[in-house]
Write a structure and sequence with these properties.
By secondary structure, the chain is an alpha+beta fold. The protein has helices at residues 24-41, 67-78, 106-119, 121-124, 136-153, 158-170, 173-180, 184-193, 196-213, and strands at residues 8-15, 50-53, 56-60, 83-90, 129-132. It is built from nine helices and five strands, in the order E-H-E-E-H-E-H-H-E-H-H-H-H-H.
Length: 215
């Protein structure tokens, strides 16, 4: 029965301002190959990212707790492309196997609703991350959290992203600074100005919210 199926997370994303980006399809395909390889290796997704229409792509998260990490890491790995992402949480019908665009179920329907809300600039201007599920209380809180997160973080500079990359690779500010050949105070300032620490806190809070909302 459908009600007995576990909730899964489907991510549907597209490129903001794709018509203004040269060679967007080739750039998207190249970035997605890197993201798929990294996220499959790390166990964050169940299926490779697949372009489903135009500049839109989809995947299925390996678990609900991976959603916050995927949202952050997708934006990091896909730059300079800017993403609009809809997340649907619900059952998926049938076995999980590629290609992702051949799968169906409420999770995909909810992800489409979330994407439509993200695209509705009149109602959600500047809010590039939306959630939809059967749990309306979760949706309310998750969308509020990411509305604030999207407004706070905005679009970090190339220098700030490089510092974030280095910190995530090295795990310490001083080691990240050394790898970039800058001083530790500059690295720390770049992380602070990019709101990196707030992003990490958002991820931690969202994992707890997902745990409590979908036990």
């Amino acid at each position: 029965m459908q009600s007995a199926l576990p909730p899964r997370a489907v991510l549907v994303a597209d490129i903001v301002g794709s018509t203004r980006t040269r060679h967007v399809r080739a750039l998207l395909a190249a970035r997605l190959r890197l993201a798929s390889a990294a996220h499959l290796k790390e166990g964050l997704i169940r299926l490779p990212y697949a372009i489903t229409a135009g500049d839109e792509f989809q995947t299925v998260a390996a678990g609900l707790r991976h959603i916050p990490t995927l949202l952050f890491d997708l934006r990091r790995l896909m730059r300079p492309l800017q993403l609009r992402i809809g997340v649907g949480i619900g059952p998926i019908l049938g076995p999980l196997r590629a290609p992702v665009n051949q799968l169906g179920g409420p999770a995909f329907e909810y992800a489409r609703i979330a994407m439509d809300e993200a695209k509705d600039a009149r109602a959600h201007s500047g809010k590039d991350t939306r959630f939809h599920s059967k749990n309306s209380q979760f949706d309310l809180l998750a969308n509020l959290i990411y509305s604030l997160q999207d407004a706070l973080v905005g679009n970090p500079s190339k220098k700030q992203w490089k510092t974030m990359d280095a910190y995530l690779d090295k795990g310490r500010v001083d080691l990240a600074a050394r790898s970039l050949k800058i001083n530790a105070s500059t690295a720390s300032r770049n992380l602070s100005r990019s709101h990196f620490w707030e992003s990490q806190e958002t991820m931690d809070v969202m994992k707890k919210l997902l745990d409590s909302s979908f036990p």
